[in-house]
Amino acid sequence: MKKIKAIILLPLAVVVMFSSCTIYSKSIAGTSVETQIQFRMEDLEYIGDVSGTATQSFLFGVLPIGGRRFHVANIGGGGLIPQDRMTNNALYDALMQREDADFVLPLSSSSVRDQMFMGNRTTLTVRAKAFRIKSK
Predict the structure, then answer these.
(1) Res 35: pLDDT
(2) Residue 28 — pLDDT band, cuts 50, 70, 90?
(3) Is the Cβ–Cβ distance between 53 and 125 less than 8 Å?
(4) Element (H, E) at 16
(5) pLDDT confidence tier of residue 64, bands split at 50, 70 and 90
(6) Which of 34, 60, 70, 127 has the fewest other C-beta atoms within 10 Å?
(7) Spatial distance between the Cα atoms of 23 and 14, rounded to a whole number of angstroms
(8) Could you tell me the pTM of the whole model?
(9) Cα(117)–Cα(85) distance, integer angstroms
(10) What is the spatial distance between Cα 123 and Cα 93, in angstroms, rounded to a whole number?
(11) Residue 80 predicted with pLDDT over 60
């Protein structure tokens, strides 16, 4: 009888322990050492800040549920931000705010993760400064 009670209570204790927590994270994309840009501020026109937010639910922490599909954005140069559906949605919203921008710099992100039973809901916010190269 004690063995059956332990088998039932152990998974219940694990679920209760991991079912309600919030994780905050933030990252800023960087470039490799070899990258050089020979611009001065006189060559650039600042056109504003851009930001985008996306909320995505995940089943078992990896399977996306809901959210928008087929909204893809790419900032180039790699960076620390993984490319998944939620990131693509947030980047797409941010970059569509200033369609005339030539590049964005620097890109930062912050996320809030709400852990739930058998999954989580994550809200990601990305922010950047948008610039355009002045034409002569």
Answers:
(1) 65
(2) low
(3) yes
(4) helix 2-18
(5) confident
(6) 34
(7) 18
(8) 0.63
(9) 21
(10) 14
(11) no
Given this model, what pLDDT does residue 116 score? 83
Q: How is 57-108 classified by DSSP, letter by letter?
A: EEETTTEEESS--S-----SS--S---SHHHHHHHHHHHHHTTT-SEEEEEE
Query: Which residue from 61, 65, 83, 62 is spatially nearest to 74, judged by alpha carbons?
Result: 83
**Tokens 């200033």 map to which residue?**
98
Q: Which residue's structure tokens are 């993984």? A: 82
* Gap between the Cα atoms of 60 and 17, Å rounded: 15
What local confidence, expressed as pLDDT, does residue 29 receive? 57
Count of CB atoms within 10 A of residue 55's CB? 16
